[in-house]
User: Which sequence fits this backbone?
């Protein structure tokens, strides 16, 4: 939206068909005119400031308006808010206008391979370097943690100017070490990742009459014991004519476009273009040594270079240089700015995702039926029959009780390792909250792939902020277990803030040593480690202590029944209870495993995962299934007079992590068969262990809290002395 444009005034004009209907029903017509008058709208760039002033008008005139009028104005405001998306772009997605002849600079990211999963810097290999020297791009926390190292490159274009046979450089004769390193990277199938205007280069190949999309291009290829390098690149840049943001075009068509004023910006008359696509086609071309003499960077190679993808000619040898050239072609495209990421995010197999959700819904419905039977037929029937008896009959019935009613005086007995249970529940609430909020924001589009690293950065931010919730839940559960005694709550808070982050740091530190030893860009820099530790102890720990303080001040949950001093003996069971607990994890895993395949492929196979809407639905279904599974198992244990339900309810749903780890091993053996080297396998298993631990804490917490509510509700209905 151009500066000094009255937002509410311009947005109210293109609604002639409905404005009369609204204003006819509002008696105070002057107020409406006052509301949308341009004299009352500050001339500022911020549309949000304009809306704030509008909200202020509504609040100040609230007494003058009838309830129905108030509703009408708020409805108008909702329409205005919904239009703000047309005036603002999400971070990392703002279009950049290039005039014909403007310079476009290509950037390079780390070299990646699905063979090793270890990224390396682009300039670790003998490539041409830019004249101004290698410079790192500004990177956020998430990019650094993901191993991205974005640097400038010598590839430069001029907007809408086709160029061919551009000479880049000729390397020095390859030394023995350089030749060995280059051939090793070709054997390991490393990909070169180049970026233009924040778009990764995409490559199309035909396979069995299908067009396959790839990001980046291979470093080289091995044919009959000879190594060939792709030293000539054919770039295709898709551009679209820049369309000046106009309020009339945003709001619609009709006579409104003729009356809405527009503000001209300096240089807006000059035609420009935006980049909407970036494609690369690698070729191996043998240059003429004589033709390379006296050529400088960006000079024109004297002979025609034919880029043939099916032919390789540039074989590399020791003590021989390699020449690099490129060409670029600009093609005008119908693709508009909001759709330029569609080529990367095009979702194949949507039916599979829907099948996953339907599969999960079947499991949820099945378990919900069991829970309904427990509540309506068993629990309600028993309680109703029990309450209808007189006191003498109740006393006689107490002697003949069986099942869950027998453990009424032991069901809230302090569990084993109560501090550890509170700590794990607190960490689980923190992880679950982080997952829900992050996936919700990603599903709404706030974490666009155009902004690299925002997903991981957002996860860290939400995790730290939700330390308040973790401390609160852990301390309040601690006080509930010990009947209101808040002694030791500070110690519980410290354990909550150090348990999961401490294990995570230990795993990452060990894996980081392996990456450091390999010289990989995936290794977390030492300074970043210091920053993470400072965030941990200066932000996360204090917030957890604040949450714990409020948890200590909050009233504890009172038990509905008293606990005997002497514990009741648990009868011998036909089957080990832990066997049932471990088997319960198969049901939550059944709701997750299909979506898990896509997530694993995204992480380890280099595919883009952006179906967060599906993932959010699956997450909600997973939470419901975990709650139902744990609730059913807790009831089954109580029915066989086993009152030690605390830990069993936690691991009944948390055992899904065991099956996820087994699935990770299966994925390593059958889907990542090409993964080479013990370092790569160790990295894979280490990251899988880290992921599984987080899922165990989150799902276990869901199961425990649902079981705690169920047991409290069940025994609060029992009237016993």
Assistant:
């Amino acid at each position: 939206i151009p500066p000094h444009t009255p937002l509410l005034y311009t947005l109210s004009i293109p609604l002639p068909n409905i404005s009369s209907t609204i204003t006819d029903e509002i008696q105070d017509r002057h107020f409406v005119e006052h509301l949308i008058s341009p004299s009352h709208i500050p001339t500022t760039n911020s549309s949000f400031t304009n809306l704030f002033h509008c909200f202020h008008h509504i609040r100040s005139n609230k007494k003058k308006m009838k309830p129905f009028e108030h509703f009408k104005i708020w409805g108008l405001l909702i329409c205005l808010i919904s239009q703000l998306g047309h005036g603002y772009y999400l971070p990392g997605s703002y279009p950049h206008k290039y005039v014909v002849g403007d310079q476009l600079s290509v950037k390079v990211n780390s070299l990646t391979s699905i063979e090793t999963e270890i990224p390396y810097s682009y300039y670790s290999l003998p490539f041409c370097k830019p004249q101004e020297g290698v410079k790192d791009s500004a990177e956020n926390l998430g990019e650094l943690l993901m191993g991205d190292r974005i640097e400038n490159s010598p590839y430069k274009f001029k907007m809408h100017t086709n160029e061919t046979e551009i000479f880049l450089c000729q390397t020095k004769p390859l030394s023995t070490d350089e030749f060995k390193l280059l051939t090793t990277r070709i054997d390991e199938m490393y990909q070169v990742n180049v970026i233009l205007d924040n778009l990764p280069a995409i490559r199309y190949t035909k396979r069995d009459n299908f067009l396959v999309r790839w990001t980046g291009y291979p470093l080289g290829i091995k044919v009959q014991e000879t190594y060939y390098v792709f030293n000539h690149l054919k770039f295709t840049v898709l551009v679209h004519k820049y369309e000046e943001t106009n309020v009339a075009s945003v709001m619609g068509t009709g006579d409104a476009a003729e009356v809405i004023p527009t503000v001209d910006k300096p240089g807006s008359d000059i035609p420009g273009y935006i980049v909407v696509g970036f494609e690369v086609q690698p070729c191996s071309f043998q240059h003429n040594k004589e033709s390379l003499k006296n050529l400088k960077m960006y000079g024109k190679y004297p002979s025609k270079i034919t880029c043939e993808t099916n032919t390789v000619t540039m074989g590399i040898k020791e003590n021989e240089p390699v020449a690099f050239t490129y060409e670029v072609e600009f093609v005008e495209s119908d693709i508009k700015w909001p759709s330029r990421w569609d080529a990367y995010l095009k979702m194949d197999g949507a039916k599979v995702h829907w099948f996953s959700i339907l599969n999960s819904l079947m499991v949820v419905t099945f378990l919900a039926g069991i829970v309904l039977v427990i509540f309506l037929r068993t629990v309600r029937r028993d309680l109703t029959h029990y309450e209808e008896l007189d006191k003498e009959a109740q006393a006689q019935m107490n002697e003949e009780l069986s099942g869950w009613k027998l453990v009424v005086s032991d069901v809230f007995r302090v569990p084993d390792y109560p501090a550890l249970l509170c700590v794990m529940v607190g960490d689980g609430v923190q992880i679950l909250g982080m997952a829900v909020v992050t996936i919700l924001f990603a599903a709404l589009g706030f974490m666009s792939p155009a902004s690299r690293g925002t997903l991981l950065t957002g996860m860290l931010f939400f995790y730290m902020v939700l330390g308040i919730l973790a401390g609160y839940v852990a301390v309040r559960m601690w006080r509930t277990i010990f009947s209101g005694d808040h002694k030791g709550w500070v110690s519980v808070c410290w354990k909550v803030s150090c348990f999961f982050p401490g294990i995570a740091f230990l795993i990452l530190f060990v894996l980081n040593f392996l990456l450091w030893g390999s010289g990989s860009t995936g290794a977390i820099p030492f300074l970043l480690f210091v920053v993470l530790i400072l965030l941990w102890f200066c932000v996360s720990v204090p917030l957890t202590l604040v949450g714990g303080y409020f948890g200590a001040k909050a009233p504890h949950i009172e038990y509905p029944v008293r606990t005997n001093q002497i514990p009741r003996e648990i009868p011998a069971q036909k089957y080990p209870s832990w066997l049932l607990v471990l088997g319960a994890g198969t049901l939550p895993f059944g709701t997750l495993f299909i979506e898990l395949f896509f997530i694993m492929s995204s992480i380890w196979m280099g595919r883009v995962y952006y179906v967060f809407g599906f993932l959010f639905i699956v997450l909600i279904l997973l939470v419901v299934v975990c709650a139902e599974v744990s609730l059913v198992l807790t009831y089954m244990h109580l029915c066989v007079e086993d009152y030690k339900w605390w830990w069993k309810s936690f691991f009944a749903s948390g055992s899904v992590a065991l099956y996820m780890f087994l699935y990770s091993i299966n994925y390593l053996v059958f889907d990542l068969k090409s993964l080479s080297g013990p370092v790569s396998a160790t990295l894979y298993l280490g990251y899988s262990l880290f992921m599984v631990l987080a899922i165990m804490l989150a799902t276990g917490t869901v199961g425990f809290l649902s079981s705690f509510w169920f047991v409290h509700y069940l025994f609060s209905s029992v009237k016993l002395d």
The first helix runs from residue 7 to 12. Residues 1-52, 76-92, 246-264 have pLDDT under 50 and may be disordered. The chain has 24 helices and 15 strands.
